[in-house]
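Supplementary notes (optional reading)

For those who missed the lab, this is the record we used. Protein: dTTP/UTP pyrophosphatase. Length: 200 residues.
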Amino acid sequence: MHELVYLASQSPRRRQLLDQLGVRHELLLPGPDEDAEALEATRAGEAPRDYVERATRAKLKAARARLIARGLAPAPILCSDTTVALGQRILGKPADAAEAAATLRALSGRLHHVLTAVAVWDGRRTRFALSDSSVRFAELPEAVIEAYVASGEPFGKAGAYAIQSSLGGWIPTIRGSYSGIMGLPLYETTQLLRQARVRF
């Protein structure tokens, strides 16, 4: 049994969700010589499911190389990536306030999907899972959008929002995994970690 996993993610929400599962973990973050953002770049015409799987597998490959380069003790590596899809349109992390506001206007009153991919490498093989949840926003008043953008909350988040923030009060329905929408689907993650023989 493995006593810990390396989490190759800077997301405090993913750390919190692993803590919730009772999984001991250490961060395995990119160094200053790595262009981590480049791994999340979208490709023209790429479907959201294909994109989130490719980005997650690319992050895992980079994390494996990082583990070896740093000479760290072997342990499973967990990577994850979340994207928001409005139809076939990928809504990534907003670059600025104008893009954040435009993203939230596009989501207002509509149904969208939150896709979170998880990959675990146990030293021998990679296991992969994809969580697909749907979220419907009520109509968002312009004042709500402006205040939310001014709070700084949209930045660093796919789709320019976090379901566990104040904007959760404008979401009447979700179908799927609440933790997956937060950034790490607990059910799928538990299955992958058990298969990788990680102790809980």
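If you only remember one thing from this example: The chain has a mean pLDDT of 96.
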